[in-house]
Amino acid sequence: MATKNKFLSLANSTFKFKLFLLAKLPAAFFSGIRIKHLSSEGATTVVPFKWLTQNPFRSTYFASLAMAAEMSTGILALNSIYKKKLAVSMLITKMEANYFKKAVGNTYFTCTQGVDIANAVQQAIDEDRSTTVTIKSTGRNEADEMVALFLFTWSFKVKS
């Protein structure tokens, strides 16, 4: 549990997280995607509506929405594999997206399946085989209206 707390404290540090984005996910860094909430159970990210994230139709570009949605699930996956005794690889094998409303302001993506992700990682370790889990990220605007719903299928496998 101490290693997860260490990861959460690193990821919740605004400065350290921005350095991580700049080094590993520069598109997310320049888009301004941020973590608003992070615990072992769930995460909320936000993609701002600005020049770098919008399309010609004056709404948030679908790829920017997808990036923020994926981050709300991926940060939970990173938390689950952080400093495990066995190294675990993670990979998205499938993504589905449904859009309900034009995103014209900040969009917040929330994933509440951190426990499901942790269980899939532990199963991959215990059974020494690849496991998959489908995780939902819901995007809402500042008026709490649903903008988009993403489903990501994550695969976890112990590295050989």
Structural features, described:
With 160 residues, the protein is of the alpha+beta class. It is 39% helix and 31% strand. The protein contains five helices and six strands, in the order αααββαββαββ. It has helices spanning 2-12, 14-24, 26-31, 62-81, 114-127, and strands spanning 34-38, 43-47, 88-99, 107-111, 131-140, 146-158. The protein has a six-stranded antiparallel sheet. Helix 1 runs antiparallel to helix 4 (62-81) and helix 4 (62-81) packs across helix 5 (114-127). The protein is globular and about 50 Å long. The mean pLDDT is 93.
Helical proportion? 25-40%
Q: How would the global form be characterised? A: globular
Average pLDDT figure: 93
Helix-strand category: alpha+beta
End-to-end distance: 24 Å
Pick out the low-confidence regions: none
Provide the descriptors you would attach to this structure in a database record:
six-stranded antiparallel β-sheet, 31% strand, 5 helices, 160 residues, single chain, alpha+beta, 39% helix
Characterize this entry briefly.
This protein is of the alpha+beta class. 39% of the residues lie in helices and 31% in strands.
